[in-house]
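ARCHIVE CARD
CATEGORY: sequence design from structure
SOURCE FIELD: tokenized fold
FIELD CONTENT:
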């Protein structure tokens, strides 16, 4: 028997238990919310730039803008898969940002250990960006022939 949580099991089930799946409209709304939060974060970063990240963030934003532009086209794809990869990407960006801020908090300089940690987080962020790009290219590759494919320097990793 399961642990009694005091909640009615008929009304307090996870969406997976209830068999409820988010519609494409709901997922599109979630993507738009993520986009708004990411844009706010980008604006904040522009107001208080970190010299080591400005160039990387501009590249990331151009890729992200391309993804958003493609998502507005009239092609079908899995919003769930796209939202999942977008959330992984945003998580890696947030982790990298936190590492940089924490490293610079005390002495405004990165020591060797902190630089290694930041470089590792940067590589993880690039890998998640590549995974996101791969999903977009696979989903839109046959539907959008007029848009160039985004070159990916790193091999796709799962």
């Amino acid at each position: 028997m399961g642990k009694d949580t005091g909640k009615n099991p008929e009304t307090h089930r996870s969406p997976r238990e209830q068999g409820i799946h988010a519609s494409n409209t709901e997922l599109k709304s979630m993507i738009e919310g993520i986009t708004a939060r990411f844009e706010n974060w980008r604006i904040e970063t522009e107001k208080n730039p970190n010299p080591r990240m400005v160039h990387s963030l501009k590249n990331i934003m151009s890729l992200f803008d391309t993804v958003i532009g493609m998502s507005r086209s009239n092609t079908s794809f899995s919003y769930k898969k796209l939202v999942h990869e977008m959330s992984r990407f945003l998580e890696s960006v947030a982790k990298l940002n936190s590492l940089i801020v924490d490293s610079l908090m005390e002495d405004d300089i990165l020591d060797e250990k902190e630089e290694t940690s930041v470089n590792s987080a940067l590589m993880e962020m690039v890998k998640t960006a590549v995974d996101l790009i791969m999903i977009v290219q696979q989903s839109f590759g046959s539907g959008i022939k007029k848009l160039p494919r985004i070159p990916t320097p790193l091999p796709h990793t799962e």
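CARD ANNOTATION: Helices lie at 15-18, 24-47, 54-71, 79-107, 112-140. The chain has five helices and no strands.
SHELF: design records, drawer C
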